[in-house]
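Dear Dr. H.,

I hope your travels went smoothly. While you were away I took the liberty of generating a structure for the chain from your last submission, since the lab meeting agenda had it listed for discussion. I wanted you to have the full record in hand beforehand rather than looking at slides cold. The sequence, exactly as received, is reproduced here:
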Amino acid sequence: MIKNQVIDFNGISVATKDSGSGKDAIIFIHGSCMNSDAWLPQLKSDALRKKYRLIAFDLPGNGQSGRYQNNPRNYRPGKIALFVSVVLKKYAIERFLLVGLSYGTNIIGEIQKPLPGCVGIMLASPCIINDFFTPETILTPGPNGHVIVAENPSDQELFEYIFMHEKNQEILEEYIQTYRATDPVFRQELGKAIFERDFTDELKNIKKWDVPVCVVFGKDETLIKTDYLNDYDALWNQKVYLIENAGHFISKAAPVDFNKLLLSFASDVFK
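The corresponding predicted structure, in token form, is as follows:
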């Protein structure tokens, strides 16, 4: 059973979902213009929820969470990153594993001071950046890449952008819906953050946690260069994992293999 509640954060309500039980928790952070439903195959997994408390939330301006009407800078990843500590306090979590998807990995990367109790970090379809690995060098968005930060692209532009990176019709249609449901200002602020270089050294920040980092891409990923973290020295098992028959939306495209990897990683770090 998945339970829903809202948590107050910086003057808005953030919608959360949780399932499972146990003293150890896995916290999931979805990507831009998605919502916590991106993690339903994980929240509904009997194997995962028998062992762990599973928690996901809608980013501000995404899904059922509130929108920032007066201070859109609160949409910046460094601001949203502060919500993780709020979740830990709300759910009285002592030990946890962080899992981020796509832009969710940037939010993890912007947590500049490691939070106590974290035993591991999983980066799915990661796009974490620093001054060397900039968005321009790791992303390959194609001719409609402006959709990532556009206020209101045409239906054709949106479809062509997504279709280039995701051939699963169901996932494609779901993303179009969640994209349109997202506050357009959220995307604009992302664009401003990229233009203003309003990011810190996310690779260094994550390394400071001093925990194993599991990096996983879909083997059919076309939005992000899948080899740019091959030499990242925090890698769990000293490798980047590639999952067959999955592109960017890996948690939904290949849930069986994704959950299997997550379970293996969790079992290793929760000792």
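Two observations you may find useful: The longest helix spans residues 255-269. The chain is about 35% helix and 20% strand.

With kind regards,
E. W.
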